[in-house]
Amino acid sequence: MFELHPQCRKGILVTTRMMRASLAMGLAVVATGLVADDRPGSRLFTTHSLTAERNRQTFEALKELKKLVLASQRVRGLTREFGADGLLKESIETPHLKLTYWASDAPLVPGRRVSLIVEIDTKAKMHVYAPGVEHYIPIVWRMADSKAWISFPVSYPPARMLNLPVINETVPVFDGHFRMTRDIAIGQEADIAPALSPDRTLTVEGSFRYQACDDKECYLPTTLPLKWSFIVGKPDTERSPDDLQRKPK
Questions:
Q1: Dihedral over Cα of 232, 201, 74, 217: its sign
Q2: Superfamily of domain 77-231
Q3: Is the dihedral of CA 205, 80, 211, 170 positive or negative?
Q4: Residue ranges per structural domain of the chain
Q5: Which of 223, 143, 210 is nearest to 173 (CA)?
Q6: How many other C-beta atoms are found inside a 10 Å radius of the C-beta of residue 188?
Q7: Rounded to an integer, what distance in angstroms lies between the CA atom of residue 60 and that of residue 53?
Q8: Which among 181, 135, 129, 182 has a CA at the least distance from the CA of 160?
Q9: Tens digit of each residue's pLDDT (9 = 90 or more) over 112-145
Q10: For the whole model, what pTM was predicted?
Q11: Which residues are paired to 118 by β-bridges?
C-alpha cells in the first residue's frame, strides 16, 4: 500500500486547511454583497438591486482575499514546493540571493540523526564571504539551542579565492550555486516531549546570516530565519516475544 512521507502529509494538510479557510472567507464576502428580497415571486437572494458601486466593492474584497492567501505563502519571500525527489523544500529570496532548504527523508524517532541541507544561489555579480575570512563578515548558519536536538558542525564546500585589486587583498568567498549540510540528532523521548505538538510535530529552528557584496559595494548584513518541521515517531519500547529472547542451550 502506498504511503505518503510524513512531511508530504503535513504539507497537504496545511494546504487543504488554507483552501477551506479561503473558501469560507470568500463565501462570507460574497454573502455580504447580496441583498435579501422578500417580494412575491422573487428569489430569496438577488443581485438585481445591487448598485454598481456595491458590485465593485464586492469584487475588490475578493481580490484582496486572494492577495492575503498568496501573501500567507510568501512571508518574507518564502515559497514552498516539492522537489523532484519528493521532499518538501522552502525558499527565501532576497535582493542578493535565493536560499533553499530542506531535510533528508530519513524516518525520525527519538535518538535518530537527520541531515539538514541549505542551498544558496547568489544573484549576478554577488558574493558572500566564507568562514575564516578576516576583516569581513562571513556566512554563519546557526541552530537554536534546545534539549530536543543536538547540532553538529556545518560541512561547507571549498571556497573560491577572490582578488580585490582596489585594496590588494585576496579573500575566500562563495558565489553562484553552493550547498551546505549539517546533521542534528533528535533527543530521547523525555528531552523532546516538551517541544512536541499534539500530533508529535517537532519544529527545529535556525538562522542564516550573511553579508553580500558585488563589484561596487557591500550591503548591510542580513539574517534569514530557518525552520524545519518533523513528525517524530514514538520510540519502540515493545519487548520481543519470549521465544525470540531465549538463548540456545
A1: negative
A2: Thiol:disulfide interchange protein DsbD, N-terminal domain (2.60.40.1250)
A3: positive
A4: 6-72, 77-231
A5: 210
A6: 13
A7: 10
A8: 129
A9: 999 999 999 999 999 999 999 998 999 999 999 9
A10: 0.63
A11: 101, 180
